[in-house]
């Protein structure tokens, strides 16, 4: 009678073991490398050409969980850092007619819905706050890569993302009809993975 009891005990142990969750990789924390992250924009000018500019100051963080295929991200852009290579135009764009940087010093994109294909980030759905107005926006990544940075010898992730918004949706309507309503926003972003603490957390 002992054999059936032993077999039952072994089967019970194996079944119990099958429900023990396997170890999962912890979400990884990243800090944006401001020296290699430049949001820029394109807008039609009078139907003649495309005016381009960039923002020289951007900070932010991200959490990437590659095992669960999810994560979060936040990017804060300094509105006063706008640069279109013309000082007079830059002053106008930072003023009340457009960004009104004195009252709205930051543009912010926050996402809690990142989409992956394999280990590649392909999309970030979130909220863009511009000129005091918050609207849903989706950033689409044309490329994304992670690995050891060849110079800094740290684990980095980076990519190129784009979206198109209407400035009128954010209350910026100056020179409507002359300056385009649609704004193409692009961001080249690189971020360094934070080192884990000694406790491994």
What does this protein look like?
- By secondary structure, this protein is mainly β.
- The chain has a single domain (22-193), classed as Lipid/polyisoprenoid-binding, YceI-like (Lipocalin, Beta Barrel), CATH 2.40.128.110.
- Helix content is 12%, strand content 51%.
- It contains two helices and eleven strands; from the N terminus they run αββββββαβββββ.
- It has helices at 2-18, 87-94; strands spanning 28-32, 38-45, 49-55, 58-65, 70-78, 82-83, 106-117, 120-130, 133-148, 155-166, 182-193.
- Strands 1-4-5-7-8-9-10-11 form an eight-stranded antiparallel barrel.
- A hairpin with a 4-residue loop joins strand 4 (58-65) and strand 5 (70-78).
- The relative contact order is 0.17.
- Mean pLDDT is 89; it is low at 5-23 and 197-201.
What gross morphology would you assign?
elongated
Distance between the termini: 50 Å
Residue-averaged pLDDT: 89
- CATH fold node name: Lipocalin
Strand element count: 11
Query: What strand order characterises the main sheet?
Result: 1-4-5-7-8-9-10-11
Task: Give the count of structural domains.
Answer: 1
CATH architecture: Beta Barrel
């Amino acid at each position: 009678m002992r054999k059936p009891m032993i077999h039952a005990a072994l089967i019970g142990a194996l079944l119990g073991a099958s429900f023990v969750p396997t170890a999962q990789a912890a979400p990884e924390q990243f800090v944006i490398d401001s020296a290699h992250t430049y949001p820029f924009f394109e807008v039609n000018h009078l139907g003649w050409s495309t005016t381009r500019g960039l923002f020289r100051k951007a900070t932010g963080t991200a959490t990437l969980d590659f095992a669960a295929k999810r994560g979060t991200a936040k990017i804060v852009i300094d509105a006063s850092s706008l640069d279109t290579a013309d000082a007079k135009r830059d002053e106008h764009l930072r003023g009340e007619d457009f960004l009104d940087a004195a009252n709205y010093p930051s543009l912010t994109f926050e996402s809690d819905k990142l989409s992956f294909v394999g280990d590649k980030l392909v999309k970030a759905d979130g909220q863009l706050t511009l000129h005091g107005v918050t609207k849903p926006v989706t950033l689409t990544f044309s490329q994304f890569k992670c690995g050891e940075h060849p110079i800094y010898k740290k684990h980095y992730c980076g990519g190129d993302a784009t979206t198109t918004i209407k400035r009128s949706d954010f209350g910026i309507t100056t020179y409507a009809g002359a300056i385009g309503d649609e704004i193409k926003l692009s961001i080249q972003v690189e971020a360094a993975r934070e080192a884990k603490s000694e406790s491994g957390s």
